[in-house]
Specification:
Blueprint (H helix, E strand, L loop, with lengths): L3 H12 L5 E10 L11 E2 L1 E14 L4 E6 L4 E6 L8 H15 L7 E7 L9 H16 L6 H16 L6 H8 L4 E6 L5 E5 L5 E11 L2 H21 L13 H6 L6 H25 L3 H17 L6 H12 L3 E7 L4 E9 H19 L4 E5 L6 E2 L1
Parallel strand pairs: 4-6
Antiparallel strand pairs: 1-3, 1-13, 2-7, 3-6, 4-5, 7-8, 9-11, 9-12, 10-11
Amino acid sequence: MIDSSILKKSIKERFGHSDCSIFSAPGRINLIGEHTDYNGGFVLPASIDKCISLAIVPNDTSTVNLYSIDYDESVSFDVDGEKPEQQWASYVYGVIQEMKKRGASPGGFDAVFGGDVPLGAGMSSSAALESVFGIALNTLFNLGFDKRELAKIGQMTEHNYVGVRCGIMDQFASLFGQAGKVIKLDCRSLEYELFPFEPKGIKLVLIDTMVKHSLASSEYNVRRAQCEAGVAVIAKHKEGVELLRDVTLEDLDAHKDEMDPEVYRRCHFVISENQRLLDGCEALSKGDYELFGQKMFRTHEGLSKEYGVSCEELDFIVEIARSVDGVLGARMMGGGFGGCVIAMVREESYDEYVSKVRAAYKERFGKDPRVIDVVISDGARQW
């Protein structure tokens, strides 16, 4: 988290305010439950110790004055005016507009913000930005939204003002997260349950491949269509089937011959992944982190071989993780075709794992991976 003294100094220098309110909202990881969200299934995210933090003061006008420390850029716009050109400011503008659509009247304000959520690593810096402004405006202007509605406001900001048709997991995790807990989120009902995640002597570490293959966006749409094709086959034989969440492996196998083999593999992964997540939560409730780690490895295997969204770089890192005794589990995290591998590593094996990945990855791909340590921490809050 960026030091609050930096925010206070910046808002005084930029806007002359000696007093201000400080808020923060974190990025997130997802331990199990990939490509399950748009199939009505479960995800298992957690908020982390990488945040976007904000110093803010209402200014009794309709003008919003923003300064981004990370971009070193300033933007001003009217709450009733046109969307600003800078994309980072569009997130703030979008949150305001989505609040207005719901009958709220946030006023103008002066704000400076910055953070340490790694950009481009799949840790949802955009959701953190939406969440920190959401909770700040909700608090300062007494708008009366609960956290579930703030998550929807963040999601609709992405849909309507940024052009990203994301699910709700990222915003939900940023707002509802708790230190030492993971969130089992039902993406259909938005019901959630917290499970303990405080393994003694075990660290969470992400290895960023530093690549993002161009297939990511186009193949995402293909996977969604394949899942829908599988649902369409089962729906002809079983009432009440709307999403893969409604389909069992028995249903799928009974009608395997009616669908394309690739469609079958995609659907098999999603249905198995939902069950794997439920089994993983049971393992966590018993404190069985070794079993949970095994399920992470199995998730990666499914994402790579059944769902077809991994890549050479991700598979390479996971294979190294399998070769180190103290790595309990590892898998690619996010949509795929690049991004990060998340791993659970015993503290005494951490140096071996990281050094082994760094050396082998540099030799194989000619570039240095980025190593990011994370700790599961509290969600969005006022300081």
